[in-house]
Predict the 3D structure of the following.
Amino acid sequence: MGETGPRFVWVDGALHPASGAHVSVFDRGFQLGDGVFETLRARAGRVAELDAHAVRLRHSADGLGIVLPADVEALLARGIADLLAAEQLDGTDDDASLRVTVSRGRWLSRALLPPADEPLIPTVAIQAWRLAPPAEGAVGGVSVVVSAVRRDPQNPLLALKTTSRAEYVYAALEARRTGADEVVFATVDGHLSEASTANLFLVRRSADGVVELATPSLDCAILAGTTRTWLLRWAERAGLRPVEARLPVDDLRRADEVFLSSSVAGIRPVLAVGGEPVGDGSPGPWTIRARREREAFLVG
């Protein structure tokens, strides 16, 4: 899915040229990764599931004790609309990727702890990139490897979408070194977790003959995506049994179909795990259907 570079960025209520200077080196987001973010998708100027993303942004900020503006939902709606218009990404056929980043803000101290007596003023930034819509009927697919990085389900930070992403970068480099497109994390006790930028789904037939759509449960160190929520509801309508469970890593190789889901990239079939094909090595029918119906939902 192609992207072109942005011309503008929205920071703290105003549009600025993308090539300019926007954030102080004393900003704790730059210094410490002390911030949170959300990625969203917009079609024809309409942001998909904006309310759900705003709720998760507030949850992540609350987890780090970052005080968001009381009207952050309205602030984001205005900022996104202004940015999409400036980038000319609000037309009928326009498709865009958005990132909302909130850091704790600027502080001249080098201390790890933020001040206790007065909250800092958060830095709020919005970026937008043009997305090339998928070609009619195109599905594509990715290969994955299981990362050497293990996730601890007891780590409370994994339920927050923070800007501290070093382990994700490390894992993405693992994939590059092995020639894979993406990584899948496992927990310290050997269960599937998520990919570096997406949730994970398996299509499989149960012992009683029912076709299931299985995904790691919330206690497997995952960040529950808005597309994940949509897919679990979609499964029931489509005639699949939705399952949230602790899935052993070997289930990844035994599944009939595997796919990844995220707000921006949508639904991506996994064609190989560690160099071994999933199923017959081509996108499966349930994956194709889920992708088609999710795209239709975004348009509608």
User: Anything to note?
Assistant: The longest strand covers residues 142-151.
